[in-house]
Amino acid sequence: MRWPAQVLTEVGSWTARPAAFIAIGCYAVLWIVFDHASFDWHGAATFLALCMTLVIQRSEHRDTQALQAKLDELLHIHAKARNELTRLDEKEPEDIERFRAHDRKGD
User: Fold this and answer.
1) Model pTM?
2) How many C-beta neighbours within 10 Å does residue 53 have?
3) Which of 16, 4, 25 lies closest to 63 in space, CA to CA?
4) What pLDDT, in 10s, does the model give residues 32-77?
């Protein structure tokens, strides 16, 4: 049952890219073209909520990537750092939680 987690992770990464804004823009244009009567204040609010969600997702993704780059640099220069930590960000969130829980038990 690994594929749902992988799909969710990929969707989360994709929504942080500029192409997601283009997709939402195309969706809005198609909505207006094919059902302009339903694109009222509620429709506009829905569209703006989708846009804000993408803005927040992109901001969070940028911050996370910057933090990961800084941590990678620190791990690379620290002589006692374990190599498996530098690749930990490629794992699924559940795997990282298990890794951290196991690592805390070892302390």
Assistant:
1) 0.68
2) 13
3) 16
4) 999 988 889 998 999 999 999 999 998 888 888 888 888 888 887 8
One-letter amino acid at 20 equals A
- pLDDT band, very low/low/confident/very high, at 90 (cuts 50, 70, 90): confident
Quote the distance between the C-alpha of residue 61 and its chain's center: 5
Give the chain as a 3 state SS string: CCHHHHHHHHHHHHCCCHHHHHHHHHHHHHHHHHHHHHCCHHHHHHHHHHHHHHHHHHHHHHHHHHHHHHHHHHHHHCCCCCHHHHHHHHCCHHHHHHHHHHHHHHC
**Minimal CA–CA distance to 17: which of 59, 47, 70, 67?**
59
Give yes or no for a contact between 51 and 15, defined as CB atoms under 8 angstroms apart.
no
Helices 3-14, 41-77: crossing angle, 10 deg rounding: 100
